[in-house]
Amino acid sequence: MCRGSAGSRHNGCFAYCTSLVSVPGDLFYYNPQITEFGYVNYYEGLFCHCVSLECIPETIFKYSKNAINFTSCFHGCTKIKDIPEDLFSCNPLAENFTSAFNECSSVTEIPKFLFMHNANALDFTYTFRCTSISTVPKELFDQTTKATTFYGTFEQCSALSTLPDEGLFYNCESATSFYKCFCSCPMLSDLPEKLFANNYNASQFGCVFQYDICLKTIPATLFSSNEKSVSFAHAFDRCTNLTGIPAELFNGYPNATSFAYAFNQAGMYSGTELVIPPSLFANNAEATDFSGVFCDCRTVKEFPAGLFVHNVKAATFASALKYSSCTSLHEDLFKYNTAVTSFESCFKNSDLLESIPSTLFDSCHNVTNFTTCFYNCSAVEGNLPELWLRGVEGTAYEDFTVPTSYSQCFYGCTKADNYNEAGNHGWN
Predict the structure, then answer these.
(1) Alpha-carbon span 231 to 290, nearest angstrom
(2) Best CA proximity match to 104, nearest among 65, 144, 60, 159
(3) Distance (Å, rounded) from C-alpha 362 to C-alpha 400?
(4) In whole angstroms, how large is the CA radius of gyration of the chain?
(5) What is the rounded (10 degree) CA torsion for 186, 192, 198, 203?
(6) What is the pLDDT of residues 167-212, one digit of tens each?
(7) Residues near 8 by Cβ (< 8 Å), separated by ≥ 6?
(8) Lowest mean pLDDT among 23-32, 285-294, 343-352
């Protein structure tokens, strides 16, 4: 029988024991001083990648009352089907559950009171990346009031189809990060309105629902409690069946700076037009990054004139409106975005676009990068904006910054009246 050895660390002591089938429930009976069952390296947990281990004894941590770290303790244990509800009931000091059950692909259910006695828990990064979990109990984090990190907690839970109507994170007032929390959960089609209610300190929602390809609707007040949010980058990236975006979605987030690729490919396969509300970013005055925000949104037919009117600090629109179905653009679309420096690939491959307003960029004096901005906009007719005159003395644009990157800006716009002129200046 295997018995624990002396010492306060048992991080990775059985890692990659691929023939280990079972362990005794009193394995650490003689080691009450143990504090570490995990390790800073996610792949060196206690039973990490013990691919033959079939069950977890309910009492295995019963005598380890000082344990604080369970990082990757069962990471990659692909044969384990059940998690004992009282597994951590004797570990009141436990802080770190990072990757604890990551890649436990046979686990189908999470016990509702698994963390009932872990009030000191802080980190749930990648805890349940389990492809067979279909539901999450609303009571799961009721007692983990100090928890700060839910980074990728349920990422790649490919069978997860429903979430609790309310209460899942309600008691986690200290939570700051939900980055990738539900990323790659392709069966989720609806989200609870109060999913993040009471998480007033949360600041990171980047990639939170990225690759959730079945997601159809977003509750208007989903982030209504999260006034400290700074990033929504990739939040709904690749939600290809999204049918709408609520106008109020980003209301009240004055500190949000990044919306990069927030709706990349959103609605691509929905079969309906994706309408962008004109006031979507009206309350995000600190936003600087809109790169890729509506990239490859093929079902978008119009970008409203007032869409970016309140985003005077915006610095980049690289790939922001690429490959849409717009046939025209509002001349005031970027009227108030005076700080922009990059429009690289902004409208690239928008092959239904028929015209470009000559004054589209007239308020954007500091742009240095127009590379492939209108690349392959093959339906454009009339005149192209004379961007090659920027910084040229004696023209209306002499006070503008001279662009340093503009290769293939108008490549493929062969129907435009001044296409050859653009080419003579190196813009094709």
Answers:
(1) 11
(2) 159
(3) 9
(4) 26
(5) 30
(6) 899 999 999 999 999 999 999 999 999 999 999 999 999 999 999 9
(7) 33, 34, 35, 36, 66
(8) 23-32
Please report the pLDDT score of residue 12 as a whole number: 58
Tokens, residue 204 = 């990171």
CA–CA distances in Å: residue 54 to residues 83, 257, 295: 11, 46, 45
CA 197 centroid distance within chain: 18
Rounded to whole angstroms, the maximal C-alpha distance in the chain is 89
